[in-house]
Amino acid sequence: MKFSVITINYNNAAGLEKTIKSVVSQTYTEFEFIIIDGGSNDGSKEIIEKYTDKISYWVSEKDKGVYNAMNKGIKAAKGDFVIFMNSGDLFFNQAVLQATDTEINQDYDIYYGNNIKKSPTSERLKTYPAKLSFSFFYSSSLNHQAAFIRRSLFDELFYYNEEFKIASDWEFFAYAICHKNIPYKYLDQTICVYDFTGISTTASDVFAKEKKESIKKYFPAFEEDYIDISLLTSKRVQQVLHIQKHKVAWKVLKSLISIVLLFVPRSKK
């Protein structure tokens, strides 16, 4: 079995049913479907029971938050690759898994594609670069609804940090790709329509705090220079970029001076 589609939900019955319909309508059928519900009391459990013949595994019980629920899903998964399609999120079309099946193999541990961010007032396509670096993760992240992650990678590295509310998936991707050099591949296709109304879209200060904690833990050399530009005004952004530019220039200049001094003959006493 190649894919495990994992959906987590808490008191979002309407969004959950939309997601279930999107998942079970995939033309590709060689996947398992896992739903982790946090003990909802809004009718979500009844919706799950309505589709039990389409669901491989489900549970409805109190959990410790989003990443605890996601970790439960990973531990229950039996597929080679997992993808999270949480309540309210949709596959871009019915042929997404069919199309990605031909692209995904054993050569890479993370495959990622594009997504459409949808809110009540807007809808826009988010594309990603084919080559990722720490500079990308400095101000952005991959979208887990548009990423296929090898299931065994969580056992090799770590599961999602349940102390975080927002940044655990950012931490996982940044650590795997920038610290451990895990092989990855960009899929130049749109994978999902992402429900852009969750906590991660409104609590940018929490995200910045958690991100900084993660940088301190795994990338301490960058901690001093890290500033979350998304929280700054446009004028302040220009000031920060100007300061950072001169800091980098000064570091480069000092390095060049050190190299030149190596070749300067010293006077004999």
Give a topology summary:
Elements: E1 3-9, H1 13-24, E2 31-37, H2 44-50, E3 57-60, H3 66-76, E4 81-84, E5 90-91, H4 96-101, E6 110-118, E7 123-126, H5 134-139, E8 147-150, H6 151-156, H7 168-179, E9 184-195, H8 204-218, H9 234-262
Parallel strand pairs: 1-2, 1-4, 2-3, 6-9
Antiparallel strand pairs: 4-8, 5-9, 6-7, 6-8
Helix pairs in contact: 1-2, 7-8
Short descriptors:
269 residues, alpha/beta, 9-stranded mixed sheet, 39% helix, globular
Give a brief description.
The chain has nine helices and nine strands. With 269 residues, it is α/β, with parallel strands linked by helices.
How would you explain this protein's 3D organization?
This protein has 269 residues and is α/β, with parallel strands linked by helices. It has helices at residues 13-24, 44-50, 66-76, 96-101, 134-139, 151-156, 168-179, 204-218, 234-262; strands at 3-9, 31-37, 57-60, 81-84, 90-91, 110-118, 123-126, 147-150, 184-195. Strands 1, 2, 3, 4, 5, 6, 7, 8 and 9 form a nine-stranded mixed beta sheet that branches. Strand 6 (110-118) and strand 7 (123-126) form a beta hairpin. The longest helix has 29 residues, at 234-262. The model is unreliable at 230-234 (pLDDT under 50).
